Amino acid sequence: MYWPPELVTEFVKLMPGKLKAAGLGEVGITPGETSNWYRFGTWGYVEALLNDENALQELDLITSHGFYGGYYGRWFGEHKSAGIDRLREKRPELHAWVTSTSWSNMDAYNIKEMHGNIYTAKVNAIIPWAGIQRPPHWVGGDPNPGSAFTVSEDGNYTIRPGYYFYKQITRAGQLSMAVAQASAMDSEIAVIAFASNGTNNPDAFIVTNIDMKEQKVKVFLKGTNATVFEAFRTTKLPDATDIDKIDEKYVSLGEYKVEDGGIVLTAPAGSVTTFFAK
Fold first, then answer.
1. Of 81, 100, 119, at which residue does a domain stop?
2. No. of H helices and E strands in the chain?
3. Fewer C-beta neighbours within 10 Å, C or N terminus of the chain?
4. Domain endpoint, select from 38, 69, 100
5. Does pLDDT of 215 surpass 80?
6. CA-to-CA distance for 93 and 173, rounded, in angstroms?
7. Phi, psi at residue 74, to the nearest 5°?
8. CA dihedral of 251, 168, 161, 96, whole degrees rounded to 10
9. Quick check: is 260 in a domain?
10. At residue 274, what are phi and psi to the nearest 5 degrees?
11. What percent of the chain has pLDDT over 70?
């Protein structure tokens, strides 16, 4: 079904009353899901909401899929915050959630896509595409066959590489922590950082290397009092032909001391390394 911007806006206004009448008044309203943030921001949905004050005030959460398509054409979809930014100009308190994003080949690119959603699209939460899969239930086959778990028809399940990469980011970014500023002077290195923000969770950061070769990286740290970090790593070679092959599964790398304002690490090709303040 095609949902033009005008229809989405009408439903944003219609549904609060319907939900309240059904005893579901605490359920919030979203604009649904475009397939990526580029479409949300450029296909007219934001303008329709901004041009209708009643709809804008009924909106509780900004949502979209967060898939990335970097080549111009029908399926182009960059990580872009323009639509989110414009809505937040009028409603600064609005949060934005990714309601589905690719597992890629269950590799470091999966975490790079999350990096783009966090730092470029400026989202507050990410829900990946179908973390638990039952392949026979997809008509015509699953178009995005990665997952954290696959359940077979006999009731058994398989823990897949996606689980270990997902663990690298979800153990670091916990409830009520804050996204911290992070940057890297190499487009094949992505750094994600989370501040404790008054929680019991430690400051943490993640270094992702999507390069075909290992890279030596120095991460300069500011705003944390920690002098020692504990590290864990998951690795899958970028040229792996078997989608379920994995080289390291959240292995402990021991402790790293902060020296001269930072930590030096060697990041293998296709690796994601997570550091937790001690």
1. 100
2. 7, 14
3. N
4. 100
5. yes
6. 20
7. -55, -40
8. 180
9. yes
10. -115, 135
11. 100
Radius of gyration, CA atoms only, the chain: 20
Alpha-carbon span 30 to 59, nearest angstrom: 6
Q: How far apart are alpha carbons 231 and 180 in whole angstroms?
A: 18
Strands (E), the chain: 62-64, 96-98, 125-126, 132-133, 149-151, 157-159, 178-180, 189-195, 204-209, 215-220, 228-235, 248-257, 262-267, 271-277
HSE of 83 in the Cβ direction (CA atoms, 13 Å)? 27
The angle formed by the CA atoms of residues 251, 256 and 258, to the nearest 5 degrees, is 150
CATH code (residue 201):
2.60.40.1180
How many domains, the chain?
Answer: 2
CA distance 257 to 252: 15
What domain range includes position 14? 5-100
Q: Could you give the maximum distance between any two Cα atoms of the chain, in Å?
A: 61
Q: Is residue 123 part of a domain?
A: no
Q: Within a domain: residue 18?
A: yes
SS3 155: coil
- Here the tokens at position 14 are 């219609």
Average pLDDT, the chain: 95
Q: Model pTM? A: 0.93
- β-pairing, 178-180 vs 228-235, is unpaired
3-class secondary structure, 138: coil
DSSP state of 259: B
pLDDT tens readout for residues 226-242: 999 999 999 999 887 88
Q: How far apart are CA 130 and CA 149, in angstroms?
A: 9
In a domain, 49, yes or no: yes
Residues 98 and 169: beta-carbon distance below 8 Å: no
